[in-house]
Specification:
This protein has 4 domains: 196 residues, Rossmann fold; 147 residues, Rossmann fold, CATH 3.40.50; 93 residues, Winged helix-like DNA-binding domain superfamily/Winged helix DNA-binding domain (Arc Repressor Mutant, subunit A, Orthogonal Bundle); 112 residues, Winged helix-like DNA-binding domain superfamily/Winged helix DNA-binding domain (Arc Repressor Mutant, subunit A, Orthogonal Bundle). It has 24 helices and 18 strands. It is globular. About 4% of the residues have low confidence. It binds adenosine-5'-diphosphate.
Length: 630
């Protein structure tokens, strides 16, 4: 058995480093103990050492699967320059050279080999692997195995079989993607054996994180004005839509602030100029959609504001990560209004259309009996009576990916600009009942996005340390403490609705929000009291979903196992739909009658205010949509 002492001496001898970076010691220790592991660390934090160093110590060969073919040669050259015997096998080298390299691995002349995932398509290659003494199987960019992600590579799905055929060789999966769903997918799809998961390096101690609950657009603008005045450096204001970029940009400009605006719908020249102005400091702020940020490495961004909440904690953390790259203190403020959820619901609905919509779009195309069809998205939407044009666009995209249709690119620039001249080619005449699309695939993805949205809403309502909440969501359980710098750790500076410090708190809204708190009807009040009573009886031991399921009298296994069906409040709202009950629960959380407590399993409980409302000792207004049973 190899020890950590071997690792430390190898670190100095082979790599010339004095010490491990955060996380490396634990990972390498676990590998030397022979265990499977998943390593999640941000890019540039030193993941490669986690397999390169064990490779030098272990007896056999370490095989590294990597999709980054273009980098393999450089990686191998760098290792060789340090005197580490390494090689690579990918499509850039000839068949005979591949064979020669496999022979040299067989003779144990190399300690490490990088392999491109498509090599495993060849059964001859897989057979050749059997004769190589492999000690460790490292899967780099392991998120490529997850169909949840945008980097999905089908070749990665073969790896499970390869690992099995190598006698369940010890396996290490590495990724910079910290989404919990992706992580569990990696474990499942690779068939890892009781792996330990290591998440580290995601904390950005110089960022202070704050969520400000706002009700009116005016409050949001005045908050940004205050930030701009109190911070001399640059700031990014993220909005959820292009339209909001334009509107917020105008409002800030007319308030006399120095701002550029940026979104993907602007002409290239205007967009590039906006970016230049911001990067050079000619404008203090840039109001932008999430199209702004990729590859932006301005080190001195002092504040990032989210004018509307982003769609997930992942997106949020990536976007605020652009602040304070120079390590100096920087401020991140999320201006939360529950009504902004509607924008995301609309996006999700549009991006993951119901199968019915996909079929209707296909039917409409087939009914033309043409091979080349000149119909715009708007025209198709009108024909099938779909209001969300984005859903039609997504349906076309899904049909294209399944190989049923092909869309031609617009021929000239003018057409491209006006989004005309794009025609649809029918590639086959499959009957609509035989489409090569898995309906659950689309709905599963939509459901995942909804889950992520719920997670960011829970984050906005937590009264626990914001930093700890995020890091724990990513699986970094080492971070259990209070950071001391976020809005919840220093509540004195947090601005809430009733805070007199908000200059124009009482000002009339410049744009009415979709769902504002309102007085309740008697029926609604009764439902609210039922929900609070049920939450009270569940004693803060369960999450939101369990509360809703119990109220709806669900026979789900978890509900029955926890014997929640024995509560007097079980099934009290069985006539209501899941979403409806959920909107009540969310509104009660927003009104601070219920509290979500963060953790690996966030729980929900009643507050003092909630108790008073339940006992009819206090009246409240709630942000409930105007529909339901009344
Ligand atoms: P990742 O794969 O996580 O993106 P790399 O493995 O490429 O990151 O590492 C980034 C850089 O950090 C490399 O230049 C590497 O040599 C360096 N590095 C890794 N571990 C250490 C260490 N313990 N001490 C000093 N430098 C390190």
């Amino acid at each position: 058995m190899h020890s950590l002492a071997d690792a430390i001496s190898s670190l100095q001898k082979h790599f010339g480093f004095d010490d491990f970076r955060e996380g490396q010691r634990e990972v390498i220790g676990s590998i030397l103990e022979g265990k499977d592991a998943v390593v999640v660390m941000p890019t540039g934090s030193g993941k490669s050492l986690c397999y390169q160093l064990p490779a030098m110590i272990l007896d056999g060969v370490t095989l590294v699967v990597s999709p980054l073919i273009a980098l393999m040669k450089d990686q191998v050259d760098a290792l060789r320059a340090r005197g580490l015997p390494a090689t690579f096998i990918n499509s850039s080298i000839s068949e005979s050279e591949q064979r020669a390299r496999i022979d040299s691995l067989r003779r144990r002349e190399q300690k490490l080999v990088y392999i491109a995932p498509e090599r495993f398509r060849s059964s001859r290659f897989n057979a050749a692997l059997q004769s190589i003494p492999i000690s460790l199987f490292a899967v780099d960019e392991a998120h490529c195995i997850s169909t949840w992600g945008h980097d999905f590579r089908p070749d990665y799905l073969r790896l499970r079989g390869v690992i099995k055929s190598l006698g369940r060789v010890q396996t290490l999966a590495l990724t910079a993607t910290a989404t919990p769903y992706v992580r569990s997918d990696i474990i499942q799809q690779l068939g890892l054996n009781q792996p330990q998961t290591f998440v580290s390096g995601f904390d950005r101690p110089n960022l202070s994180i704050e969520v400000v609950h706002t009700e009116r657009e005016r409050q949001k603008i005045s908050h940004i004005r205050r930030l701009a005045k109190t911070h001399s450096g640059s700031g990014i204001i993220y909005t959820a839509t292009r339209k909001a970029v334009e509107q917020v940009g105008l409002k800030l400009q007319s308030a006399g602030l120095s701002v550029s605006t940026y979104h993907a719908g602007m002409p290239d020249s205007v967009r590039i100029k906006a970016q230049d102005n911001f990067m050079s400091g000619r404008t203090q702020m840039i109001v932008a959609t999430n199209a702004f940020g990729m590859g932006i490495d301005k080190p001195d961004i002092r504040f990032v504001v989210h004018y509307q909440m982003p769609g997930s904690i992942e997106a949020y953390y990536q976007e605020i990560g652009r602040a304070g790259r120079d390590g100096l203190p920087s401020t991140c403020v999320l201006l939360f209004n529950y009504a902004d959820k509607n924008t995301h619901d609309f996006f999700i609905e549009g991006s993951y259309p119901e199968f019915k919509v996909i079929k209707e779009v296909y039917d409409t195309l087939a009914a033309t009996e043409l091979r080349r069809i000149e119909l715009s998205t708007a025209e198709i939407a009108a024909r099938i009576g779909e209001r969300n044009e984005m859903a039609v666009q997504s349906a076309l995209y899904i049909l294209e990916r399944a190989g049923h249709i092909q869309r031609t690119a617009p021929v000239n620039r003018e057409d491209r600009r006006s989004r005309q001249g794009r025609s649809i080619i029918m590639l086959d005449s499959t009957p609509v009942t035989k489409l090569r699309i898995e309906p659950t695939d689309v709905s599963r993805r939509g459901e995942l996005e909804r889950r992520k949205l719920r997670a960011i809403i829970d984050f906005c309502y937590t009264d626990y340390c914001y930093r700890a909440h995020i890091l724990r969501y990513f699986g970094d359980r080492q971070y259990e403490r209070q950071c001391g710098t976020c809005g919840n750790c220093r509540p004195a500076t947090a601005v809430h609705l009733s805070d007199p410090d908000v200059e124009d708190h009482k000002a009339t809204p410049s744009a009415p929000v979709d769902v504002t708190p309102r007085a309740l009807t008697d029926d609604e009040l009764l439902r609210v009291r039922k929900i609070l009573a049920c939450a009270k009886r569940m004693n803060g031991r369960f999450g939101k979903t369990m509360l809703v399921s119990t109220l709806r009298g669900s026979a789900a296994k978890q509900v029955l196992t926890a014997r929640l069906n024995e509560l007097s409040t079980y099934g009290l709202l069985k006539e209501m739909a899941q979403d409806e009950v959920l909107s009540y629960v969310d509104a009660l959380v927003e009104a601070r009658c219920l509290r979500v407590k963060a953790g690996a399993y966030p729980t929900i409980s009643t507050t003092e205010l909630g108790d008073r409302v339940m006992r009819e000792q206090e009246q409240i207004a709630l942000a409930l949509p105007l529909n339901g049973h009344d």
